[in-house]
Amino acid sequence: MTGAGQEAVIDCRNLWKIFGRRADEAMKAVQKQGLGKIEVRDQFDCVVGVQDATFTVGRGEIFCIMGLSGSGKSTLIRHVNRLIEPTSGQLFIEGQDVNQLSARQLREVRAEKIGMVFQNMALMPHRTVLENVSFSQEVRGHSLRERRENALRAIDAVDLNGWDQKYPDELSGGMQQRVGLARAIAADPSILLMDEPFSALDPLIRRQLQDKFMSLSAEMKKTTLFITHDLDEAIRIGHRIAIMKDGALVQVGTPEDIVTNPADDYVADFVAGISKLELISAGKIMEPVAVFEKREGPVDLSTWPEAHPDHSLDDLVNLSIATQHPVVVKANGHPIGIVTKNALLRGIKGEVDVMNTAAE
Amino acid sequence: MAETQFSILDPFSSVDLGLAQSADGVKQWAIDNRGVIQPIKNFFNDMIVGIDTALNAVPPMIMLLIMVLIAWQAGGRRVAILVAVCMFALGFLSPNAWGLAMTTLAIVISAVILCFIIGLPLGILAGKNDRFEAGIRPVLDTMQTIPAFVYLVPVVMLIGIGNVSGVIVTIIFALPPLIRLTSLGIRGVNPSVVEAARAFGANPRQILFKVELPLATPTILAGVNQTIMLSLSMVVIASMISVKGLGNEVLRAMGRLDAGKALVGGLGIVILAVVLDRITQGMGQSGRERGHRHWWQGGPVGAVLRLAGKN
């Protein structure tokens, strides 16, 4: 499931979390009899938080988990640094089983390998920005000079120069979350856990922070698990997206996969309102030149606008506005397909002709 | 004594479990264990007498100045002025009022220090552990509601009359709010901040000292404030077991129906209460609420630092 040739930094296998006093009994019943969420609730008075989650995240990848509130995504992400213990299943970080670590090793992993950003920021109100950002190094016992240097570098990375001596309540919401981000990256961890980091912010600030995060992430190449309830955000940020419903991962795939091939009605419902302009490429909606010519007769392609198979629908729309002709898609200088106005409109509606894609 | 007939309708008058007699055994136990109790008593007595002597050794005007400076640092200029006015009023109440007030202050300080040493760990434990909290709550309720005279006698039997018994009696009455408010303060810390501390690798001790206690400090100081107030309200009762100070004034005035003397003692206690209350309340407020960032940037320390910085 990981991108080609990448090692799995986070490897989650058949992870289950059942909340409640009789969780272990319920787990056994689930494994033996295959009980569902509702049976578990009725028979054992337990709540299934995560059911059978399996996924891997490759190095440098941004993996988004999208789901509505109560779908178990925050529970799932907390298993990565074992803030929550799983009822069953395994989770490996760089090959190390998190659930086999001693309390001491676990603290070391949390402080040095994993940075976490929280939805409600969770900054410490009695500490300055600098003291907040250097917290993870402080608990590891690093020298004052070293942690100050690292913290200032992180504060610089999120554009908060000069705010290091302020207290969190003197900062706006967006700035507070940037402090949260700085705190997460200060110890230079290899993994970032983002638990709905931008959900509590207004749309403009959210967009700014998404951009900031994406540029930082491209620069630092951190493996990121990103939780969100906003599919637009997941599509903007994620290399791959997992859709979560009732504690289970319904579909895992690239943004384009999810939008063009929703696994079930639930995902389809989500995807319905998403703009496809940036997601679908010309290669997906073009029809082969031969097919086009068979229908319309021979045509002179030289006056038609040209596009590349990777161009997005948005680019095709811009090309089409200026002319009455269809767009010709060329690869290495050779025309390989035609995008008619109708095909373009269907693409914008998300109706990708599977025949054409297969023929490609 | 006539043999009482057991009756199912009134079983209580005929059954004697001997609770009162067994409590009397305390006296014999105390006499048997004199060798253990005496050194402990002497240690605490020395501590109280030491504080008392120190407070009385300082000339009143110097003491007044020190208290005003503390008040300025803790609560700002307005509190400092109030404390100055109060302390002058206290001194002019009667020629010996100042000395008595210092003795009372020594008892209160000793009691509060011991309350803090006992109450803070218990409060933290109660804040972390639901079962312990459930167990200690009825004990605290008992400590606060049981009439002081009930435990006055056993304490005197165990330790004898004097300052140490006075402080113990005061602790029994004044300790509960500190434990309750410490527990409340720890429970009131935003759980997501604690979770963040865990997520960044803090161990339980670091979470306690770097996150929970600092955030619970205002509530804990409110508990200290309550403890001080309750300690002051015990000084009259404590004076019945020969504790000196303002309380003793009131007690003696009661015996002689001397309204004037009672007023001096009573007003003295009230003034002391106001002064201590304002100072501890000031401590509970963070410096940032009064417009400066760190405690050393305000009050007399801040003024001295600024002067030093200019030269």
From TrEMBL, chain A:
Cell compartments where the protein resides: Cell inner membrane
Matches recorded under CDD domains: ABC_Pro_Gly_Betaine
EC number, UniProt record: 7.6.2.9
Pfam families: ABC_tran
Top enzyme category: translocase
Enzymatic reactions: a quaternary ammonium(out) + ATP + H2O = a quaternary ammonium(in) + ADP + phosphate + H(+)
Keyword Transport: yes
One Gene Ontology term of the molecular function aspect: ATP binding
InterPro entries named among the record's database cross-references: AAA+_ATPase (IPR003593), ABC_osmolyte_uptake_ATP-bind (IPR051921), ABC_transporter-like_ATP-bd (IPR003439), ABC_transporter-like_CS (IPR017871), Gly-betaine_transp_ATP-bd (IPR005892), P-loop_NTPase (IPR027417)
Membrane topology: Peripheral membrane protein
Limits of the ABC transporter domain: 30-271
Keywords recorded for this protein, A-Z: ATP-binding, Cell inner membrane, Cell membrane, Membrane, Nucleotide-binding, Transport
Cited PROSITE patterns: ABC_TRANSPORTER_1 (PS00211), ABC_TRANSPORTER_2 (PS50893)
Family the entry assigns: Belongs to the ABC transporter superfamily.
Complex formation: The complex is probably composed of two ATP-binding proteins, two transmembrane proteins and a solute-binding protein.
Protein name: Quaternary amine transport ATP-binding protein
From TrEMBL, chain B:
Keyword check for Transmembrane helix: yes
Keyword list, A-Z: Cell membrane, Membrane, Transmembrane, Transmembrane helix, Transport
Cell compartment(s), UniProt: Cell membrane
Membrane topology: Multi-pass membrane protein
PROSITE patterns: ABC_TM1 (PS50928)
All copies of domain ABC transmembrane type-1, residue ranges: 101-280
InterPro entries in the cross-refs: MetI-like (IPR000515), MetI-like_sf (IPR035906)
Assigned protein family: Belongs to the binding-protein-dependent transport system permease family.
Organism: Ruegeria sediminis
Listed Gene3D superfamilies: MetI-like (1.10.3720.10)
Protein name: Proline/glycine betaine ABC transporter permease
PANTHER family named in the record: GLYCINE BETAINE/PROLINE BETAINE TRANSPORT SYSTEM PERMEASE PROTEIN PROW (PTHR47737), GLYCINE BETAINE_PROLINE BETAINE TRANSPORT SYSTEM PERMEASE PROTEIN PROW (PTHR47737:SF1)
Ranges annotated as spanning the membrane: 53-72, 79-98, 104-127, 148-175, 228-247, 259-276
Signal peptide: none
Pfam families attached to this UniProt entry: BPD_transp_1
